[in-house]
Here is the input.
Amino acid sequence: MRKQTFAVIGHPVGHTMSPFIHSRLFLLAGAYAQYRALDIAPEDLSSGRAAETLRGLDGFNVTIPHKRNIIPLLDAVDEKAKLFSSVNTVKNEDGKLTGYTTDGDGFLAALADAGVRPGGKSLVLGAGGVSHVMAFELSRASEAPDITVCARESGLEAAKSLCDSLSRDLKARGITKFRLCACLYRELPPDAGFDLVANGTPCGMYPRENKMPDVPPSLLARAGCVFDAVYNPGQTLLLKTARSLGVKTVGGMDMLVWQAARAQSIWLGVEFDPEKVREISRLASLERERMFGAAKG
Here is the structure.
């Protein structure tokens, strides 16, 4: 029986928890497979050597900064990944590479496990791949979406483009009552009240865990929930700040584990018991502390 091979690609990937998570999911699935991390610099992604390596795998995950740039290198892209302009999972089927996104599934499952219902008034931080996914999922979770996409100067045009994409999608689905806004961090009203503040940027990720998006503390204090897709550290400065203000928080580890489970559903056609997925999330959090130190979150 041939051992199937999988990997995660990104740059850097020294902090990744994906091998730990996927190895445990493979055990649950009864799969004969191995999983590793491949550090591929942005300038090397389209090289012949990288292409040969990736096409030699049965499948792979994609993380920062390749989630968009991998798309032109694939043979096909799932409709949802195409809509989100983001791929985090690739399946190799008889030499054909097809891209998918499972980030949205992970995002929604993480919120659900924390008892948070998407919808209402939402603030999405960033306009990259993860933020794109979260914004679309939030727009589809409400009958009258109210979403603000906030970015730095360099990302403002991307934030506007994201809002335009959301608008087209909503209108195509017959939804005409909605509010979409793209803005800079300095334009955020300090007294604005959001049901959910969701960070899709890498700001605050190890080893720069002393950073956080430039959101006014008064705005965080009025939020119903603050979600951070960053999973290392487990408690980012953004989440720590929100918790100190008495706000409910949800970290990125649950999202990471749930999207990994969905990736294996695509690769292997398996489904997982939610309770066992939550246990893997707990173990992954403990492993993260062992690898990087509890002091980092």
User: Anything to note?
Assistant: The mean pLDDT is 93.
